[in-house]
UniProtKB/TrEMBL annotation:
InterPro entries per UniProt: NAD(P)-bd_dom_sf (IPR036291), ODC_Mu_crystall (IPR003462), ODC_N (IPR023401)
Family: Belongs to the ornithine cyclodeaminase/mu-crystallin family.
Protein name per Swiss-Prot or TrEMBL: Ornithine cyclodeaminase
GO biological process, one term: carboxylic acid metabolic process
Superkingdom in the source lineage: Eukaryota
Organism: Mikania micrantha (bitter vine)
GO CC entries: cytoplasm
Length: 337
């Protein structure tokens, strides 16, 4: 584990600790975070307050996001947290991640700063694990083929989190608008995953890839659909995590119409372009959303997958609640060491 600087239990006037990306990778393995979210979310949603994230357009192509959350029950979750995120999609041309973030964790009773956390690593891990939690309830238990649409910084985390939830997957395909990035990610995953009988390859034809896939996981910044509903095979699960603004859109209306649609939380209904556009065009009504992540975790028998042939769609825009719970696990894991 990387060295954690600062005092994990700072007294008045002392500096908070800094938890870097390397430490997060150590204390937030996918299985641990998936389990933490599954066990914590049902009760946390009633005690954690989080307004809709602040969006600020800082240039024609970049965005600043502010995501605060605070606990109303210090005895169960004694934290307040704020994540600051910059989104610069054009960074791909500079060989840099498009998203950078910092997270600050406070004691909710005293207001004291406890930790400054690498928000970029925190974000990709919690986003991937949220998708994996949803997949646990919505994808077929015998899913074997996973297609990653997009090969950016989030893609490897989504792939590894989905593999954690669905160990039956033995074939991973990666599609990206530029195949160079797909090839690079394939090579990295082959070295890292190293699972016998696991086939990891570049997908050159996205239509063919979608038609083959049991799980299609999308993490792009596209403003036009890249996944068409007519391509989805019976029983497929479509995971949409790239769209966080109404102008963004990773799938077409047919995908939304063919599938039973679930969301990570209420913000998805007003932020995700796939849903906002579908409401405006009259192809989906808000009351036709089947349920959210907490309802899935509570295992509401009325909304989980009904059979092996139905198509399911999960739309995730992220939440400050997820961030706070992830920061909680990271911080408490560090101070226990």
């Amino acid at each position: 584990m990387a060295t954690v600087t600062g005092n994990p239990n700072p007294a008045a006037g002392e500096s908070p600790i800094f938890i870097d990306a390397s430490t997060l990778r150590s204390v937030l393995p996918y299985r641990s975070l998936i389990n933490h979210l599954q066990t914590s979310l049902p009760s946390a949603t009633s005690v954690i307050q989080s307004p809709i994230r602040h969006h600020h357009q800082t240039s024609s192509s970049s965005t600043l996001l502010l995501m605060p959350a605070w606990s109303l029950s210090p005895t169960t979750i004694p934290y307040t947290g704020v994540k600051l995120v910059t989104v610069n999609p054009n960074n791909s041309a500079l060989n840099l991640p498009g998203v950078h973030a910092s997270y600050v964790l406070f004691n909710s009773v005293t207001g004291q700063t406890l930790a400054s956390i690498d928000g970029t690593e925190l974000t990709v891990r919690r986003t991937a694990c949220i998708s994996a939690v949803a997949s646990h309830y919505l994808s077929n238990v015998n899913s074997q083929v996973l297609l990653s649409v997009g090969a950016g910084s989030l893609a490897p985390h989504l792939i590894k989190a989905h593999l954690t939830t669905r160990p039956s997957i033995n074939h991973v395909m990666i599609w990206n608008r530029t195949s160079k990035r797909s090839k690079h990610l394939v090579n990295e995953l082959r070295k890292e995953i190293g699972i016998a009988n696991m086939k990891i390859e570049v997908c050159e034809d996205i239509e063919l890839g979608v038609r083959m896939a049991d799980i299609v996981s999308c993490a792009t910044s596209s403003e036009t659909p890249v996944v068409m509903g007519r391509w989805l095979k019976a029983g497929a699960h479509l995971d949409l995590v790239g769209s966080y603004k109404p102008t963004m859109r990773e799938c077409d209306d047919e995908a939304v119409m063919r599938g039973r649609v679930f969301v990570d939380g209420e913000a998805a209904v007003v932020e995700a372009g796939e849903l906002v556009g579908a409401f405006e065009r009259g192809v989906l009504k808000k009351d036709e959303i089947e349920g959210d992540l907490v309802q899935l975790i509570k295992n509401d028998k009325k909304i989980v997958r009904k059979d092996d042939n139905e198509i399911t769609v999960f739309v995730s825009v992220g939440s400050a609640v997820f961030d706070l719970l992830t920061a909680q696990l990271a911080y408490e894991s560090v101070i226990r060491v």
